[in-house]
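#lab-general

N.A. 3:47 PM
ok so I finally got the sequence cleaned up, no stray characters, all 467 residues accounted for. can someone with queue access submit it? mine expired

B.Y. 3:52 PM
send it over

N.A. 3:53 PM
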Amino acid sequence: MTIQIEFLGAAGEVTGSCHLVQVGERRILLDCGLIQGQRTDEERNRAPFPFDPKTIDAVVLSHAHIDHSGRLPMLVNAGFKGPIYTHSACIDLCRIMLKDSAFLNEKETEWENRKRLRKGLKEQEPLYTEEDVVHTLKQFRKLDYQQKQRILPSIELRLNDAGHILGSSIIELWLEDNGVERKLVFSGDLGRPGMPILNDPALIKRADLVIMESTYGDRCHRSWEDTRSEIAEVLSCVTNGKGNILIPAFAVGRTQEILYLFTKYYDEWKLDRWQVFLDSPLAIQATEVFTHHSYLFDPEMEALWKKNRQKSILPNLHISHTTIQSMALNRISSGAIIIAGSGMCTGGRIKQHFKHNIWRKDCHVIITGFQARGTLGRMLVDGAKHIRLWGETIRVNAQIHTIGGLSAHADEYDLKNWYSNFENRPPVVLVHGEAVAFEKLSQTLKSELNADVTIAQHGQKIDLTKL
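B.Y. 4:20 PM
back already:
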């Protein structure tokens, strides 16, 4: 008999989530994400899958973030023909995020190939194209939260709200082979209790094995009240709207949270002094998806949405749909708050705004989310004095503000509390984190909850029949 899980991504690192579950002759993947970070890390995306995609019966996707979904078109291109199960809101977000990922990859490959040709090197193919994404989307199958469904003769599945981004899921799997039954719970990326817009992460009572993310396993976020005060302080320190404020923001989740907060505290933060620009085509589309799934909002956001749905959520909000509209912002020297992607500053329009602003002493940059090692955002958080943009060295004179309390990831305290709700204290395997986070969370779970903790290693297999 065989009931096992093999860790093939986000094991010993944050990105590239991918775990292979085998039950008898059946094989399913939990997530299939892109590896993000430094160029050497991202080159690993071109490596063949460590399994035959044709032998995978199904994929269960926890949420739409590219480090969890971004290799799905490659999986399909390599021969996977099965269904991809996820929440309906996740499908709508994947529709725009995967196409955006393909567009960016095609452009980056085109740029890279120009350099390779000049060096006499062989051209590369993009990881996948927008056409590949269209084919992949045909294999998605939607599920609602709390809808238990048998997806294979030996596997039952139920999705629960993870509270991380719209449509994010905690995955419950009931596995059976030759009369032996085991229950596996995969946290996906867990949100934080009490945060804006979404409901708190669901609590699960029993499992035989828990696979849990550890992104912020080594720290506790600032309280929500402290975070609100910190944002207010940043906004007020720029007297009379002098200079610009740049906010690199993830298109899904973080952008919508920022707009929500600007609406809620519009008067208190004196936002009428500013012109607010949403300069991210992906975030604009994602915000539209949010409005189509408003039934997933928490009660406070739902009330605010009903109140404002007939008019602009912010009276001074400007939407930059086109490249020309985005370029026009480069002529604004003060009084603008510009929200743009990408969230880790690795691409997108935020880099253009850095080029025209970050060397100014009156510029402020607000970092609102996790910055992986090797990313431009992480360099800024770590105090870089100079950055490179399109071959040009630019001095960083702007003030960099890190608002950790806005993170969409559970922190050490939240992760511990979420796990503590398992009545039988099952073994837990930590994934999706950096070394310091793994070690700290592992020690916390062992010392405070007497948990049996394993830090996943790439390629490691765990036999659930022996638990």
